[in-house]
Amino acid sequence: MSNSKQKYILAIDHGTSGAKTAIVSTQGNVIDWEFEEVPLHLIGNQGAEQDPDDWWNAIVNTSKKLIDKGHVPVEDIVGICNSGQWAGTVALDKNGHHLMNSIIWLDTRGAPYIKELNKGLIKVSGFSVFKAIKWIKITGGGPSTVGNDPIGHIYLIKNEYPDIYEKTYMFLEPQDYVNLRFTGKFAASEASIHMHWITDIRDINNIHYSKKLLKTLKLEPEKFPQLKKSIDILGPIKPDVADLLGLSKETKVVMGSPDITTAVIGSGAVADYQGHIYLGTSDWLVCHVPYKKSDVFHIMASVPAAIPGKYMFINEQQVAGAALQFLRDKILYHKDELLKEEEVPDVYKIFDRIAEKVPAGSNNLIFTPWLYGERTPIEDLTIRGGLYNLSLEMTREHIIRAILEGIAYNIRWLFMYVEKNIQKWVMKERAGMTKKDFVMPELNIIGGGAQSNVWCQIFADVLNRKIKQLKNPIQANARGAAFIASVGLGFIDWNDIPKFTEYSNIFTPNPENRKVYDKLFKEFINIYKATRKMYKRLNS
Predict the structure, then answer these.
(1) In the predicted model, is pLDDT for residue 305 greater than 90?
(2) 321-470+502-534: what fold?
(3) pTM exceeds 0.85, yes or no
(4) Is residue 155 within 8 Å of residue 223, measured between CB atoms?
């Protein structure tokens, strides 16, 4: 055995785009990482699937590359923890073999079945009021009316693939499927299972399946896994997987939690009401809270956090960085006969340089980032994105900056309701605080988009808040997974995490941009109000 005092975690950030695997110290220092892309299979306008074998192969390949580099002694890699994409569904047989592709969080084909479930005379945000009251009381929310939660996926399988449903031994989240591949054990964390909306979370220290909700859904309880806490040790790594990766057979696999609940820990925002923005393919703005609360009107709620005994006030928006990827791949550098793939430059850095030269507000050009509908603060399957107030005097420079600003407007729209929901709690705990004071005076920012200084400044200006750019922001999920494992294995305590968190830059709002961004944000909201019925007619 090594005499080294420092130990390490193999931390896996398994997102929609692919597998990012890192070796991280128990104090959150990322030693090195590898990434491998995973294909996304879109089916029409509503279907989105991935092959679980592609996930596993990418995780194995990136892990082997890292371990083979020999940065740290193999015997000092003491734990594995996986942070996976959330709200996906893998149908498995008794041997742990998947029976079809995983239906992932972007998939809305289950919407008709959820709408049938929510039949009722009086509705709020698409929910039958009487059914919603039952759901919210027990689990804080309910199955998404657009069908992109696991229950929507399971209903889709039950109704359109009945033979697969009958053969299914158990349904697992993507993150829990990866844990199964590592250990051979079927289990879910209290955090990962939550988007199924079938657990009773009223007592945060006693989360369990609700027999009442399972009966309402007419689903068999035995098709769902046993529950564990995120810091629980699921078991040792399977001997054959240890041999495959070159790890010790003593390596422990810690349950972990989904990307959203892991990232907040990796951002260092472990204290109550300390918020962070994740800026990746999609985006979210969340914080830990000590209480259970739901806002059914704006599709956000408290859910079990990865930290035992805490909730997290959660939300998610469909498109953030995906809009820039769309601009790159579908418009500026479309892969056709006229352009070879190797000719595509690193456009994101170019976008930054261009956007810096354009004045705030992009000459009143407004981009709406609803390219795949929206989840919150409105849940609208048919709304679509667009550029508004476009004129011949504008150039692609205005369009690029307007896209960055439009995503910031969308997050401001979300931020309004997050602050409103937690304001009462914060005022009780902060002596002398008034309603005019900021509930969240500063926000940490993480994810691939957080590497852009110009975008971070746009967020500071649009939100009128201090933005703290995490050092190495694309590794927040990996760091969060490593911290969860480190706590679970007894190396650190939750309160240690802030002192292990470093920032690259802190961006303060530019008061000169306040007037233009306030004006454009109001029009951003007006665009939704003015166009939502038209989009419903076009896209129903």
Answers:
(1) yes
(2) Nucleotidyltransferase; domain 5 (3.30.420)
(3) yes
(4) no
